[in-house]
């Protein structure tokens, strides 16, 4: 007996790769972390792969490819965006911020990044770029997010199970909880 | 203080391998153990005092100008920097920081000048300590094993080509038996060197912050100044270790070294690695495990811009392109035909049915226990309580999909990626490519999760990347899609069990666990209760899937079986589940104390709102006892709502309580996720699920907002911390839902596939 893809697989693949008929590379200009860039890419290439492979900004991660896990989260014109599922052609003329663009020019961490360090949030760390980008967007939108708003907004997957510390870090970053008690005993 | 988990971008030059006077095959563990009886009485703790060829090689691999290697596993530079080489990978469980704390504390090193690097994936750095400790644990004769000459252990380990991270072993074995001893021995050598240089006795000297001080004269010498001389000295094989009250770093909440690079995007994982001229490839393996690639027309993929090559493997097709997107589009354009390897009838219901049939046939492959269960059941007549449990295949779902970069050049195969055993990875890749292991170089990278998925025994990507690299002239990074990841896992096996017991005068008189799965789990079933007659019978059943270790391994399902069933027995006896467990644990035992503490913290017995229940469970695994209480209710849509979780842990002592808490809390969440929603199911031999849309992982909103973790400090041997948080949570949740609803949960996950 032999057969081709099982039906489910075929459907999943087709959903992900809608043929656009536009195979020619086009030049697309936008800004990333405040710098103007222009890339040559096929119009349907997801922003994620342009960031990772063309611009070598690998802090934005590939997790699922279907906007289900949030590991690829960035900001596009200030809006939280799952970059694996946005064609780069949609980004033309827009401003993208990635995890690499959160720090101040002098290297000072963004308050949310600092809260992540203080609460010792990351374990494997792979999802944390996306988690931080989601948290920054949430705080920019709400100021001081409630527990319910955190529940609603923080839908990114973390397999290590860092959720309680993510919540704690968001509350601490917005002055709603005592700073995490991660002591600096023995730290340099 | 800096962590450098990946010092090997400039990869280690291949030095000649040490001669191993042991034949490459045939050094089986039992032969070794049989021979070991002759060596009793050696009385030497020689663990890291490895034989000279390995030490020479370690020195070649790790030391530059002004640096001095000690006992293979550490070096001191003349600027006082101390570098530890970890044989274990850190994928977020905090191992590197913990091992650094243990070494630096005994060494009295200045923590700001301590670095932890991944040990080279070289046989000189195989983890002898791990093997020695495991041998001791498994045979029950640690005295015998500890008496072995170090050189013999070193040779044995290298012949097995392992450098494992797993079994919650790093801190309790490598750290306790290795890094602390090394630190203390090197400190003693530095003191001896200083005494000679200053012309005073060793007793007049003190050490702190990488400095030896002679208080009487006010003179001092830095470790960097003493290292060259100390490295020439013979080191104590039995140095005095600090007592608990002397610890400055051990058992302290030191912040993790790897975290800064994980909040700003600068950490480089295997999937992020890149080389000039590198291509990216992606793969589709036979949908039915065991199937082969029958045919594929390459043309549709080759028509996709950016696609450069289609590579056919025995059981898979790979598309190579200039980037991932092009490769993925090329792959999607193909219509490969695969055989099903004769496994086309395999399905989830068929597996359960076959398991039931096998168990009912009553011919166990393995059995263990004590007392006479059969007689007790016979005497009880109709009063034997039974319950059948079923647990599904579980996917590891590490957030970083598999990615391995390979370059075949000048007869050598170079590999870059994150795997749980770098030396084992070289071995597997060498076998796949038909090469000698010495011609395969592996560069360990940071891993985006592992949970048991990244052991060489279950990482077929090593074969795929090795075979692919031999067919292309450029470096190539093979990346699995999430669909490939979900559908070709090496899952926690789908398993089932019938538990039966009888009660007499309010106590359990006899208990039997008839379980069906691939492996004999004796040694991991962890039955802790005082019951006069117990029986564990294993019925071996395998599917077409490759069974993989999933965080906490067999303790996941057996923790669920045992701790759900004892809850049922408590209910049958009309007793409180906490008190019923308590009275079956030895009075004054560590287990009883852990159980009491968790009940106290959780307010066991206090009133709860309508519709909310409390569940309790206790499991010992990997040398650590964990009891958990979960409060849960049911949401409007019928799915469980976990409100809060408590854990009390006795792992002897924690090296880093801050990190240990994260490991226990993370383990609970992983377990809740699996219990509530995760299942891999088979239909027509192939995996049905495809991505995070139908493989349901717990999200933040459904995780308990707070997990209250407490540690009991005891002088018991140090237990593991990465895995033991997982096993109790399944049963604690199921028991809580029973308390809330009166309905028992015996089949996982709680949410059916229909809901997915």
TrEMBL record, chain B:
The chain crosses the membrane at residues 31-49. It comes from Erythrobacter dokdonensis DSW-74. GO terms for molecular function: oxidoreductase activity. InterPro entries: Ald_Oxase/Xan_DH_a/b, AldOxase/xan_DH_MoCoBD1, AldOxase/xan_DH_MoCoBD2, AldOxase/xan_DH_Mopterin-bd_sf, N-heterocyclic_Hydroxylase, OxRdtase_Mopterin-bd_su_IorB. The lineage of its organism: Bacteria, Pseudomonadati, Pseudomonadota, Alphaproteobacteria, Sphingomonadales. Residues 1-21 are annotated as: Disordered. Keywords: Membrane, Transmembrane, Transmembrane helix. PANTHER family: ALDEHYDE DEHYDROGENASE (PTHR47495:SF2). It comes from the Bacteria. This is Aldehyde oxidase and xanthine dehydrogenase. SUPFAM superfamilies: Molybdenum cofactor-binding domain. Signal peptide: none annotated. Residues 264-342 form the Aldehyde oxidase/xanthine dehydrogenase a/b hammerhead domain.
